[in-house]
Amino acid sequence: MKRKIVPVVMVLVALLLVPCGAFAAEKKGLLVYDSIYGSTVEVAYWIKAIIGIEHQLDVKTIPQVITLEPYDYIILGSATRNEGPLKRMHEFIEANRSVLATKELCFFLVCGDSDETQVLKVPGKEAHLIAGRNYMQPIYQRYPELKYTCIAGFGGRQVMASLGLTDRLQIKLLEKLAKEGAIWIGFDIWESLVVERVEAFANEVRVKVLGLQPRENVEQFRGYWQSLQPANLKDPSMGKFKRKPWTERVDTKKLFYTRSRIKGDLDPTIAMLETWARKNGYDLRVQVKTFFNVYYHAAKTYGGKERIIHIVPSTMPEDPGTVHISFRSYDKPEERAEVQKDIEAAEALLWANGRKLP
């Protein structure tokens, strides 16, 4: 009996010496993407590289997916059209929504712009949020049972010479509707993707989904996006990527617009805006509220007519520890003098105590 007991004891001691979690099965992931011109493909494999090729993450386009059952978590990635994911991604989610509801989900969008303080006003329609993570709203509304651990909107790449007719027409329309200016005019290739956003999203998946430490040397993977292709063949010196100004003021016949950034968090910023609204007689109406931004209509009556200031404070993954804030008035110049003074008063409050950043 003693001979049999000794080996058993040795095995038990060996098991106790094994680090906790060594026998836990690692989560298996699937990244499903839908792309038109190829940018989303690049981003999909870029994310996989940051997460780590040593971790099980299958990368598949939608037609390659046979089953979702073996996976613990799923990352959905799509290009955007008509201010949301592609039609085929919607169809994929619809066909698999019952299974997706049982999985841990993440979602990223490759889109035209990532400035989530933006508001678009189309003639005859209500003004609304656009850009970046704001394009997730159709997904939230259509599939309320699906919950996401991580979401992202990166910006993207437009190769003008390769765009289809519909996309060309949409780009031309947006040029006319972008009252603050369309930064892609004159480009053969226009890149708006913010590389830090891709890196932040992939590291968020590592931390929140896989329980890993964030990868520190993420810059080594930027080759997935960097290329030697010129922004304009007629002007090889033109840079493809030009970050939108963080501080800006536009005063035209169609629009009064300001944008700035402050040190701080979203909740204290909201509190300051509420204080400003009370002191200046504004009814601050929430249109959309997310974990990263709020879209307000600030309403006040001047001269017997209600005026609306469109206000959006938003955090940005690439600029931690700050809040970016935009104010917009679509009133005519002769009708908005008092509105502009009120916007300046709001900015003075937000910028006080050294909070304003260049």
Please state the second-level CATH architecture of the largest domain: 3-Layer(aba) Sandwich
Count of discrete structural domains = 2
The CATH homologous superfamily of the largest domain is called Flavodoxin domain
Q: Report how far the terminal alpha carbons are from each other.
A: 79 Å
Q: Pairing-aware structural class of the strands and helices?
A: alpha/beta
CATH class descriptor name of the largest domain: Alpha Beta
Succession of helices and strands:
HEHEEHEEEHEEHEHEEHEEEEHE
Task: Sum up the overall morphology in one term.
Answer: globular
The level of helicity is 25-40%
Sheet-strand content, in percent, reads 15-25%
CATH topology call of the largest domain: Rossmann fold
Q: How is the main sheet built?
A: 7 strands, antiparallel
User: How many strand segments?
Assistant: 16
What keyword list fits this structure?
single chain, 358 residues, alpha/beta, Rossmann fold, TATA-Binding Protein, 2 domains, 7-stranded antiparallel beta sheet, 5-stranded parallel beta sheet, 8 helices, 16 strands, globular, disordered N terminus
Would you kindly provide a written description of the structure presented here, covering whatever features stand out?
The chain folds into two domains: about 30-225, 3-Layer(aba) Sandwich (Rossmann fold); about 250-355, Kinase associated domain 1, KA1 (TATA-Binding Protein, 2-Layer Sandwich), CATH 3.30.310. It is of the alpha/beta class and about 350 residues long. The chain is about 30% helix and about 25% strand. The strands form four sheets. Strands 10, 11, 12, 13, 14, 15 and 16 form a seven-stranded antiparallel beta sheet that branches. A five-stranded parallel beta sheet has the order 2-1-3-4-7, with helices on both faces. The protein has a two-stranded antiparallel sheet with strand order 5-6. Strand 13 (about 295-300) and strand 14 form a beta hairpin. Helix 2 packs across helix 6 and helix 7 packs across helix 8 (about 335-350).
